[in-house]
């Protein structure tokens, strides 16, 4: 058995390749950003060809830097930005349109029409998701309706849909020369097209969106002893490696944080924030604005489900301070600037740039900075941005506690923003519980490696993975209860000011 497992992490802002050893330690890594294409307000696209090129390049560079070859890898896993939608031609391999990214809101009218026509409850019940711009179904429909020739090609079976997991699996296994067209069950659970009970595409849901079944990938387990396919000798790995693990990024982080028991939860702080709580083999339907989703399916074992609170804008609000306002030079600067003041000076920032996701699901909301007075400075705005990340997470924790009946004792965290000590301290203060971070913070890539490695026996079982989880940092609450309550009440008032801002009917 080779000594390592490889993992491709195709994220929203960048793609990375990481190699892990048996202890879950990072042996090699390389990462490259790709372009964020913003053709008009609310639209966000990526170039799928650029994503494939970046993927090839990070694999080659990471292996090269560490002096590794394909035969050092026992298996390869893949994890990806979920919901982002690619439609391509099976013969030429060319995408018909740019990838429509999960943050893109162009399908707001498709989503609100489904609700207005009374289909919302069907979608919520069958797919576990509210009709929203976030998920793939509306994005596929938009491409079918707006790009010349795609609907006909889809009906002929020539146009294929995939999230970026499918797109990369297809490319890695040969593309137009016999590439496999599959998606893992966690990615499929984010389309509004898969039935959570049957774990198959659902005819009623497909007909609501007018999507031909033949363009959809085959749904496969997240960890599969029967490989989805093999990488090619003349591909970026330069050899045949079995592809045996695939998970959407947040589900991968749940696995990477070893949340294998019901009630175990993690929160990932990246472009957006995503909190998942394992609910075991029960499909728990949310009454509090959370999503019901598949957490993972390991081989033939029953699928394990999760409740998820997705927050659209957290790290991207920090990017906004950098790119649009120009008040910081890099993400880490947000901490330096926010530390210049002792508190938010009364300022609350609700970054509802693409509406509000969990637990509100309001596509008519838009961002607001409220409570400003002449006294306030950039530093208050920076602090309010970090607080917004934490308050949005608190709203999700409350929804999770209401739905699951589990009281969170400690929050496991990961993702880029966890490098920000002030933000993590505020998170502990706002929640009133400890916040802990593992030594290997790259839980997303690690989770996909775990899924791939479990399939080939590189790791024996999930108990073995638990031993790899080691605590790195812990933040403990310092605020008084009164401070916590007052702060949250003001935050809630700020949220109410952002609602009903744009007309989406
Ligand atoms: P993704 O996987 O979604 O691309 P990452 O986990 O790589 O995200 O995190 C990147 C995000 O984290 C960016 O939006 C960036 O603005 C934010 N970020 C990174 N470092 C910091 C920091 N020190 N303070 C605040 N935000 C940060």
Automatic annotation (TrEMBL):
Glycerol binds at residues 82-83, 134, 249-250. CDD domains: ASKHA_NBD_FGGY_GK. Residues 266-455 form the Carbohydrate kinase FGGY C-terminal domain. Keywords: ATP-binding, Glycerol metabolism, Kinase, Nucleotide-binding, Transferase. One of its GO terms (molecular function) is glycerol kinase activity. Its EC number is 2.7.1.30. Belongs to the FGGY kinase family. The gene is glpK_3. Residues 6-256 form the Carbohydrate kinase FGGY N-terminal domain. The keyword Flavoprotein does not apply. Key enzyme in the regulation of glycerol uptake and metabolism. Catalyzes the phosphorylation of glycerol to yield sn-glycerol 3-phosphate. Sn-glycerol 3-phosphate binds at residues 12, 82-83, 134, 249. Inhibited by fructose 1,6-bisphosphate (FBP). One of its GO terms (biological process) is glycerol catabolic process. The keyword Nucleus does not apply. ADP binds at residues 12, 16, 271, 315, 416, 420. One of its GO terms (cellular component) is cytosol. It holds the Pfam family FGGY_N. Pathway: Polyol metabolism; glycerol degradation via glycerol kinase pathway; sn-glycerol 3-phosphate from glycerol: step 1/1. This is Glycerol kinase. ATP binds at residues 12-14, 271, 315, 319, 416. It comes from the Bacteria.
